[in-house]
């Protein structure tokens, strides 16, 4: 049973994971680029996939609080799979097109749109682990 908070614990967990992943990207890419790379905080690509972390954290949190056999977990899981697939396949294709158009000098495009399988896997692990940790902290185990 979820604690009586004025807002969904699962939603708070997912948003916290999203913000943590984006902040991690700022640090990681700032070190890599040897300059403050704050633009990564609002970036759609990069390591780890915040898309995957966000929806995985939501699904795992819903499963932990409502049960992995619940209908609400099933809905969260289905939408998570759609988002993860989209961030890899569809947005990955858009990223390839943006790179090709940039090479042809047909405009300036954001070329960091999609995610690699490694970035997605890191996002899934991060989201699941952080949702589990949040559950244990709140649940008191």
Short description:
By secondary structure, this protein is mostly helical.
- Number of DSSP E strands: 0
Distance between the termini: 14 Å
Taking pLDDT < 50 over at least 5 consecutive residues as the criterion, the unreliable ranges are none
Which class of secondary structure composition applies to the elements?
mainly alpha
Overall number of domains: 1
Overall pLDDT: 85
Q: Kindly provide the radius of gyration, computed on alpha-carbon positions and rounded to a whole number of angstroms.
A: 17 Å
Summarize the helix and strand pattern as letters.
HHHH
User: Helix amount, in percent?
Assistant: 55-70%
Question: What is the number of helical segments per DSSP (H or I, 4+ residues)?
Answer: 4
Gross geometry: globular
The biggest beta sheet reads: none
Percent of residues in beta strands: under 5%
Features:
141 residues, globular, 70% helix, mainly alpha
Would you mind describing this structure in some detail?
The two termini are 14 Å apart. The model has no long low-confidence stretch (mean pLDDT 85). The radius of gyration is 17 Å and the shape is globular. It contains four helices and no strands. It is mainly alpha-helical and 141 residues long. The protein has one domain (9-139).
SSE topology:
Layout: H1 9-33, H2 50-66, H3 71-103, H4 117-139
């Amino acid at each position: 049973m979820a604690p009586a908070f004025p807002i969904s614990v699962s939603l708070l967990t997912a948003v916290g994971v999203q913000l943590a992943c984006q902040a991690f990207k700022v640090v990681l890419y700032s070190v890599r680029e040897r300059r403050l790379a704050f633009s990564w905080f609002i970036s759609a690509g990069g390591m780890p996939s915040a898309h995957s972390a966000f929806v995985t954290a939501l699904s795992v949190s819903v499963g932990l609080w409502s049960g992995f056999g619940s209908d609400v977990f099933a809905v969260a899981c289905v939408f998570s799979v759609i988002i993860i697939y989209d961030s890899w396949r569809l947005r990955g294709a858009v990223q390839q097109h943006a790179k090709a158009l940039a090479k042809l000098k047909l405009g300036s495009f954001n070329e960091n749109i999609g995610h690699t399988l490694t970035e997605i896997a890191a996002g899934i692990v991060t989201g699941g682990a952080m949702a589990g940790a949040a559950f244990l902290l709140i649940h008191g185990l």
